[in-house]
Specification:
The complex is a heterodimer of chains A (278) and B (88). By secondary structure, chain A is of the alpha/beta class. Helices cover 30% and strands 18% of the residues of chain A. In chain A, 51% of the residues are buried. Chain B contains two helices and five strands. Chain B has 88 residues and is α+β, with helices and mostly antiparallel strands. Chain B has helices at residues 33-37, 70-74; strands at 11-15, 19-24, 44-45, 57-58, 80-84. Classes of the chains: A alpha/beta (278), B alpha+beta (88). The interface between A and B is medium-sized, with 32 and 25 residues. Bound molecules: thiamine diphosphate and iron/sulfur cluster (2 copies). One iron/sulfur cluster is lined by residues 21, 38-40, 42-43, 59, 65-71, 82 of chain B.
Chain lengths: 278, 88
């Protein structure tokens, strides 16, 4: 058996035999995961969340692989299908706290349709989407979030497509909570995830991440510290930003903050007849 | 090179009158982020090589530590953490 001694403050939330992760040196995903675990730790310590009811679901990709490392019930499902899997679980057992993690490719690309309808129905789950601007695990193909002009393995002459803004998309639907943070400000990831854990309905957090290994290679920022610093420079935190301001643009800036925070009736509340909109 | 403490887990640990910074040596991947984010330059790369071939940071300037935990919060690998020294 590998290490079982808890030493780091987050060790009890991790499957230590799988640490270190398979992530590349300086990958932002570990920073995001640690921030989420700190928030979960606070919720568990204050008694507002029962760890046995926490359930993680991830599809395929470096980001989705997080579910492999957490010391909770978790499911690693097929590419793009983490959201429908989680919906099934919460409908069968509404006591579950479902946390979906995945990359921009998994959640907004192949799984994009599920994202729309889960947000529209305000289903009781949290989706944390890690945007690293590329399909990282498979070696750097263009993603729905890749900025225009970037040369990827599938766009060797530069990406001709316009990227999507998932925060604006989800905001146009019926989600109860929508926020964006960056791995260069881990305390905001923690704060937003903490808040999301205390709410009902559909909660979406986009975490802008650094992938020095693949995206960094495409844009000439292969060094993890340079990649981190370049991302940090582009992040503009606006605590009370309007949705029109929610830009995510590598050149013009990446606006982070909370964009939606409301308590519309959640899908489970509607199904149970606790709240009726009809 | 002399390291103050080494247990089964292989730790690099330094303590000032206020804070203890611990590096879990074999979790480090030498990304350099903790060294870059520390506002007071407490950390520097050590000349030790861990079991995966990476050189972990060492809290050499521990007396400068302000306990901000930026190193801990920005480490992608759960490899460094900061504790407040209990005052008697
Ligand atoms: C149905 C299916 N299609 C394609 C793949 C190949 N595949 C594996 S990971 C991945 C992309 C992952 O990108 P993203 O979701 O952005 O996650 P990241 O690795 O960037 O964190 C793809 C296309 C697959 N595993 N299954
Ligand atoms: S390929 Fe990119 S996203 Fe995947 S582990 Fe490496 S740095 Fe992280
Ligand atoms: S706690 Fe802050 S000051 Fe101390 S080593 Fe870490 S980053 Fe530097």
């Amino acid at each position: 058996m590998a290490v079982t001694q808890y030493i780091h403050p987050l060790d009890k939330h991790l499957r230590l035999e799988r640490i270190p992760t398979l992530y590349c040196p300086g990958c932002g995903l570990g920073i995001g995961l640690a921030s989420m675990l700190r928030a979960l730790d606070s919720r568990i310590k204050e008694g507002s969340i029962d760890p046995d009811k926490v359930f993680w679901v991830g599809g395929i990709g470096c980001s989705a692989r997080m579910v492999f490392y957490v010391n909770y019930d978790s499911a690693h499902v097929i590419h793009g299908r983490a959201i429908p899997f989680a919906i099934g679980a919460v409908l069968a057992n509404p006591e579950l706290k479902a946390i979906v993690v995945g990359g921009d490719g998994d959640i907004a690309g192949i799984g994009g349709n599920h994202l729309l309808h889960a947000a529209r129905r305000n289903v009781d789950l949290i989706v944390v989407m890690f945007t690293n601007f590329v399909y990282a695990m498979t070696g750097g193909q263009v993603a729905p979030t890749t900025p225009r002009g970037v040369k990827t393995t599938t766009t060797p002459r530069g990406n001709p497509e316009y990227p999507m803004n998932a925060v604006k998309l989800v905001t146009s639907l019926n989600a109860n909570y929508v926020a964006r943070a960056s791995i260069t400000t881990p305390h905001y990831i923690e704060q937003y995830f903490y808040k999301a854990l205390g709410k009902k309905g559909f909660r979406f957090i986009e975490v802008v991440s650094a992938c020095p290994e693949v995206y960094g290679r495409h844009i000439g920022l292969r060094n993890p510290v340079e990649m981190y610093n370049e991302l940090k420079k582009r992040v503009k935190h606006k605590p009370k930003a309007s949705i029109e301001e929610a830009e995510i643009d590598w050149d013009k800036g990446i606006v982070t903050g909370e964009f939606v925070d409301r308590d519309n009736p959640s899908y489970i509340e509607i199904l149970r007849g606790e709240q009726s909109e009809i | 090179m002399h390291y103050p403490e080494s247990t089964q887990l292989n730790l690099l640990r330094r303590t000032s009158s206020k804070f203890t910074v611990t590096v879990i040596v074999d979790r480090c991947k030498e990304c350099g982020i903790c060294i870059a984010v520390c506002p007071t330059k407490v950390l520097s790369i050590s000349n030790m090589i861990n079991k995966h071939g990476y050189r972990p940071p060492e809290p050499l300037n521990i007396d400068k530590c302000i306990g901000c935990k930026l190193c801990e919060y920005n480490c992608p690998d759960f490899a460094i953490f900061v504790e407040k020294v209990e005052q008697p």
